[in-house]
Design goal:
Length: 96
């Protein structure tokens, strides 16, 4: 599983080349108190996998105050492919 995330509209890209449309490592950060929209690429997962993909959202939200980040994640739905928008993340299956 790969998370495709973009924290700035200026970083939009249709490719997934490291340093161009993808970060060189699997770590992203958002400013404190960000509201992150979470999408899932519909064609990459079976319906019964969805609950497992979204399970981490509640614990992350539960500790956001304690960690001081106050970053909250909200599931927004299934999409046909990665969403390149500010403060959003798309969960896609690794294709390599």
């Amino acid at each position: 599983m790969v998370l495709a995330a973009v924290s700035s509209l200026a970083a939009q890209s249709l490719s997934c080349n490291v340093g161009v449309g993808a970060a060189p490592v699997g770590f992203w950060s958002w400013p404190p108190e960000s509201k992150i929209s979470v999408y899932v690429a519909e064609s990459d997962f079976k319906p019964d996998e969805l609950e497992y993909l979204l399970a981490p959202l509640s614990p992350w939200n539960a500790v956001s105050e304690t960690t001081g980040s106050r970053v909250e994640f909200e599931y927004k739905g299934l999409v046909n492919g990665p969403r390149y928008c500010e403060n959003c993340v798309t969960i896609v299956r690794d294709r390599w």
